[in-house]
From TrEMBL:
Keywords: Glutamine amidotransferase, Ligase, Transferase. Coiled coil: none annotated. This is GMP synthase-Glutamine amidotransferase domain. Transmembrane segments: none annotated. One of its GO terms (molecular function) is transferase activity. It comes from the Bacteria. One of its GO terms (cellular component) is cytosol. InterPro entries: ChyE-like, Class_I_gatase-like, GATASE. It is an enzyme of class 6 (ligase). Pfam families: GATase (PF00117). Residues 20-188 form the Glutamine amidotransferase domain.
């Protein structure tokens, strides 16, 4: 029996990227739910996998009238956790996963004196010394360059396992329970996605990188997009192995 991959999407530009390739190779039935467009959340069934994608909204937008679906999405995530459904949360998806498990977020600080400063652009994530998930840790034995695009840091619930961190943000990659993983960074991206983000999210990237943000990100994408592709695919493949167990 073919498994379903239930995709919770919050914005047109933040789509599946490389995850579409992996789902196809594994013969998964992909069902996308555009919560921002009013789609209803699905009923969970045995064997389902859940993918929660990113978006510019956040935990502090819960109860905001522009995002009435956030509360229902959090309840859906809690149900998936209770039913031991495999989950991958990316960026906003990671924040929602942590929040549904008792965590929260706060503004990511940087500079001197410290002030809210987004983490935007390519930088490495490295294995946490206390990480217990050996099959993932081995893939991060050498720091992996990934794309960052966020203004908050996650305050993890006490029972979460931290897997990897970046130089600016400790809570980059984590595990909750036995089948749920959150990544604050983006390993699913493809070139055309990033160039669209640069075009459509200009104010945000300038807040993190200054007036040259577009040039910096375009050059970084040329440097790291292709060179990290196989490493990113290997990490995604391993994640799907783990949540399908």
């Amino acid at each position: 029996m073919m498994k379903r991959l239930l995709v919770l999407q919050h914005l047109e530009r933040e789509g599946l990227g490389l995850l579409s390739r992996i789902a196809q190779e594994r013969g998964l039935i992909v069902s996308i739910f555009r919560l921002d467009l009013g789609d209803s959340l699905p009923e969970l069934a045995k064997g389902d996998l859940v993918l929660i994608l990113g978006g510019p909204m956040g935990i502090r937008d819960i109860n905001h009238p522009s995002f009435p679906w956030l509360l229902d999405e959090i309840e859906f995530i809690k149900e998936a956790l209770n039913k031991q459904v495999g989950i991958i949360g990316i960026c906003l998806g990671a924040q929602l996963l942590a929040y549904a498990s008792g965590g929260y977020v706060e503004a990511l600080l940087g500079g001197t004196p410290p002030k809210p400063l987004p983490e935007v652009g390519w930088d490495t994530v490295s294995k946490s010394p206390g990480a217990k998930t050996d099959s993932l840790s081995s893939l991060l034995a050498v720091p992996l360059p990934v794309l960052h695009w966020h203004g908050d840091r996650i305050l993890l619930p006490s029972d979460a396992e931290l897997i990897a961190s970046s130089s600016r943000c400790k809570e980059q990659f984590f595990k909750i329970g036995s089948l749920a993983y959150g990544m604050q960074f983006h390993i699913e991206i493809e070139d055309e996605m990033v160039f669209k983000w640069i075009e459509e999210d200009s104010d945000f990237i300038r807040s993190g990188l200054g007036v040259d943000a577009r040039f910096v990100l375009e050059e970084q994408q040329k440097e790291f997009g292709d060179s990290t592709l196989q490493s990113r695919l290997m990490l995604l493949e391993k994640l799907f192995d783990l949540i399908s167990a």
